[in-house]
Amino acid sequence: MADCDLCGVSIPTVVPVRAFMPRFEHSYPEGIWKGLCEQCLKAAKETADRTATSSSCGTAGKCDLCGAIAQLQPVEISRPSFSKGQEEDTVMLCKKCLASVQEADKNWQKQKAEEHHDHH
């Protein structure tokens, strides 16, 4: 089991997303892997697609995925809650992480398509 790095849900398989964490840039210059559930991946990809066509520069702050201080975009996610089932929440991601999310989504969709063809 693995936990989503954005919402905390525990699932058997998370989607690997490369994050470039500033505090580990010398130790891991190629980035480190974070895991996102499919719902968080979809929400982040929608935000990335929306910001690609928008002129919004975002809000300054600390990225919730990589920890970089940068211009951030809000991503609406659902967190699991024992009392309410699901709680809507907003996490803030930098453009570098949103670009990594787009790449991860493309790879994930390709992998799912290949697995679908292998089963038939």
Write a brief structural summary.
With 120 residues, the chain is α+β, with helices and mostly antiparallel strands. Helices cover 33% and strands 34% of the residues.
**Overall number of strands:** 7
Order of helices and strands: EEEEHEEEH
* Structure classification: alpha+beta
Tally of separate domains: 1
The unreliable regions are none
The average pLDDT score comes to: 90
Rg, please? Answer: 15 Å
Percentage of helical residues? 25-40%
N-C termini distance: 27 Å
Tell the overall outline.
globular
Order of the strands making up the biggest sheet: 5-6-7
Main sheet attributes: strand count, strand direction, barrel closure: 3 strands, antiparallel
**Amount of beta strand:** 25-35%
Count helical runs. Answer: 2
Written overview of the protein:
The protein has two helices and seven strands; from the N terminus they run ββββαβββα. The protein has 120 residues and is an alpha+beta fold. It has one domain. The strands form three sheets. It has a three-stranded antiparallel sheet. Strand 5 (59-62) and strand 6 form a beta hairpin. Helix 1 packs across helix 2 (95-118). The longest helix is centred in the C-terminal third of the chain and has 24 residues, at 95-118. The radius of gyration is 15 Å and the shape is globular. The chain starts with a strand and ends with a helix. The mean pLDDT is 90.
Comma- or semicolon-separated keywords:
120 residues; alpha+beta; three-stranded antiparallel beta sheet; two-stranded antiparallel sheet; 7 strands; 33% helix; globular
